[in-house]
Amino acid sequence: MAKNPEHRDLFPGALEIMILQSLRLRPMHGYALVKHIKNVSDNLLQVEEGSLYPALQRMLREGLLESETGLSAKGRPTRIYRLTDAGLRHLEQEVVSFEKMFTGITRVLAVAKA
Amino acid sequence: MQFLRKLFSRNRRYDDISVSIQEHIEERTEELMAEGRSRKQAEQAARREFGNVTLMRERSREVWQWAALESLLADLKLVFRRLRKSPGFAATVLLTMALGIGANTAVFSVIDSVLLKPLPYPDSSRLVALILNAPGAAGMADFTGGLRISPSMYLTFSGHNRSFQSMGVWTSGTASVTGLAQPEQVQTALISDGILETLGVPATAGRWFSQVDQDPRGAKTVMLSYGYWQRRFGGDKSVIGRSIQVDAQTREIVGVMPRGFKMVDHEFDLLVPLAVDRTNQKLAPFYLEGIGRLKPGISVAQADADVTRLISLWMDSWSNGPGTNPHFYERWRITPSFRSLKQRVVGDVGGVLWTVMATIGLVMLIACTNVANLLLVRAESRQQELAIRAALGAGRARIARELLTESLTLGLMGGVIAVGVAYAGLRLLTAIGPADLPRLSEVSLDARALCFTLFLSVFSGLLFGSIPVLRYARAKVSTAIGSANRTASAGRGRLRSRNVLVVAQVAMALVLLVSALLMIRTFAALRNVDPGFSDAAHVQTMHIWIPDLLITDPQTVTRVQNSIVDKLAAIPGVTSVGFAGAVPMENNDPNWDEIGAEGKRYDGGEPPLRLFNYVSPNYFHTAGTKLVAGRDFTWDDNYGLRPVVIVSENFARESWGSASAAVGKRVRQFSSMPWQEVVGVVQDVRQHGVDQDAPPTVYWTAMLNDPYTRTPTIDGPRSVTFVIHSSRAGNEGFLAEVQRAVWSVNANLPLASVQTMQDLYSKSQARTSFTLVMLAIAGSMALALGVIGIYGVISYAVSQRTREIGVRLALGAQKNDLKWMFVRSALLLTGCGIALGLGTAAALMHLMKSLLFGISPLDPFTYITVPLILAISAALASYLPARRAASVDPVEALRAE
Lengths: 114, 897
Hints:
Distance between the termini of chain A: 37 Å
CATH topology of chain A: Arc Repressor Mutant, subunit A
Order of helices and strands of chain A: HEHHEEH
Helix content of chain B: 40-55%
Number of domains of chain A: 1
Radius of gyration of chain B: 38 Å
Low-confidence stretches of chain A: 1-8
Structural class of chain B: alpha+beta
Shape of chain B: elongated
Shape of chain A: globular
CATH class of chain A: Mainly Alpha
Number of domains of chain B: 5
Number of helices of chain A: 4
Radius of gyration of chain A: 16 Å
Strand content of chain B: 5-15%
CATH architecture of chain A: Orthogonal Bundle
Distance between the termini of chain B: 58 Å
Mean pLDDT of chain A: 79
Largest sheet of chain B: 8 strands, mixed
Strand content of chain A: 5-15%
Strand order of the largest sheet of chain A: 1-3-2
Mean pLDDT of chain B: 85
Oligomer: heterodimer
CATH superfamily of chain A: Winged helix-like DNA-binding domain superfamily/Winged helix DNA-binding domain
């Protein structure tokens, strides 16, 4: 479904961690999330709408997020997503395990080059 | 509540998702508009970028659902909607399935309860029936399923075996209970020490018999069955310790056995100690049934080997009296042939039951093919819809799932109704089932039977559902949409699967009809056999037993029996009266022993064993057994102890060549005994049932010198069956008069087994008639279903080919040729089915051999008649729609396009 073949699909869990991290800054609605991630990553990462909404619902169900009625940037009603305490804890755990993984991958790549 | 709240919150979630997505697209649109596009362009672009909104929404919602279930529910909703739209189809299928599954469940319950479940005793797998083989004692050893056990054998076996934890012997009998109300004849089981220990079922009140109770000189005791306890004493616990008169003997009630407890297969009222005298025994007589409980880890074969060595020990330990050869029984070649108690109880009824099960199962298969045919027609009419859905991206699996959902739903709904059908069927089965069906009282519709119903529902749903699936799930889009209704006639492939079904149906129907006809022919053959008695419906029989304690002197016993005969003969409407030790088909042989004709040499030096019966004068005349030569007994023969016998025709022919040559010849039992003159010859009597050969029989007078005592002692049978010939036989008023007549002689004599000879005759054929009824029902169902199947296929073909028929008619085809064209195609299918069925039937019918009598499993008459019936039915079934084809108006047919 990738619209741009240069963008690689995110691996499992990556989308969630980015959503959590973004919402940690401030509560946002769906479209704002997409734009935020796109801007912050300098267009390197593009969030698929097709993955975003099911992922949001999954995280809602797991209690990592909560949603509330709010207004969009244009003043129309929409749903604003907010991080819960559980979501925050989950994010911190995930960040730690991601960092470990990156360290691991980096080391392996370094050895392969040598 | 939880569920409702979840549903409610779920709806809120759904709204949230819609709102979010809506706003997402709005914002993107506005952004694009800000870049200078028109609103329309911007909106289009935003939607394109977002992708399939509906799909996204579905995916997001699925997070909150049990996805598979919900889409199944949606499918189900669709199925029900479609079924509601075609109630005729739904009703036909449901009824077919309900009948099919219900009938199968009913028969399965019977098979499960009778054949599969363990006997209702603790750890019953270790119970064995002590059955002995004795090929040298023909006659005596084959009518009970082996040679019975003598008390001395029991003493030897139980004292010296190494394989059994416990063993015991028993025999069934009757006794009269007096002193309660009217004298009553009850069923008893005489049991030795070890029987209750072996079966292991504790008493529900009181205690088991003890060693003391088994002492012939000890206290006289009795135990009650639960049923008798309830019936006679209203379940009163204080009966323990009370006394009742059993065969004029006062016995103390010591215990009550629990509800449902049976003595192996015998439903008894009283348990009486056998009280074997441990010192005063001979080798004979052989009349007891043995059961044993194996020690853990011991196999039946090991027990066989163990007891084999005890046979000669038994012959060494006992004798039949001075001057007799204790090793005489070596000639009988006695060997243990123990088998599980369950096998003994169930007997050979398995053959009948499995035949019925197979038959009903086959009907079920035929019903399934019919339903599959109907589903094919439905799927065909939906072909275009399915093709469009396939074109829109529905996967093969998705379409298959939907078709299967429909058929499974039908199967399961049919299964639910089937439970009711099975319940009714079971009541019918137990009502018409053969009276000798073992464990009949244990049959019920239980959880196992319901599991079977479920299995059958799912299985049949998948079975008849898979055929349309195979055919249509991969419908080729182009052909289906493109060719719909445009071709002149149906494609080859369209009809092929339905044709295959019809061929299968015809083949199965043929197998069923062949088996049904074979049973009908068997029944007819049995009816043609002369059983050795006549006018059975007008012969009343009843059993009277005169206990020792009531009348001690054997001569008086015969006199009392004689007086009863006289009193009975005086009843208005009675033409003739007599009695015998046993009447035919009563499953009770008075005696078997060897007897030799004068001057005749026998293989092995000893004459073979013959059936002995003891009859009064006039017995043969009353029972309608024809006197072939010589004369009947007289009372003078009887009271004068004259050395005379009557023999059966086959005995006479075997010994002297012909019946007339037998009269005046002499026979003798042992060399120590006087010769007996043959005064008469009677026709052969099928003592053990119409399907069993008539045993060569020797008839003695009722009163005679006991051959088994050293000094001449007068003896006579105390247990006899009276026969009364009267046009009033079976009539209640008549029976009351009979009872009064008997009680006018002795008021302490109860009547037992009151029935007509016709009842006995029917009972002996109960299994055959039961199988016959079941197969006839199955066969006619199969025929009807097969005919409907053929009719359906041909009439569908006609409706599909209307246009082709129109063209043919327009081009000048003759109507008769057209009709013939359709009938021919039906006959072709039938022919294929018949060929297939004949092969199958020929291969299968030898399995039914044990149920047949007088005809071969390959009976030519049957194998010619059944295909003819099928061919004629098929021709008729196809003629009706074919006639419709010929009446097609070509103009109409062509304009209709």
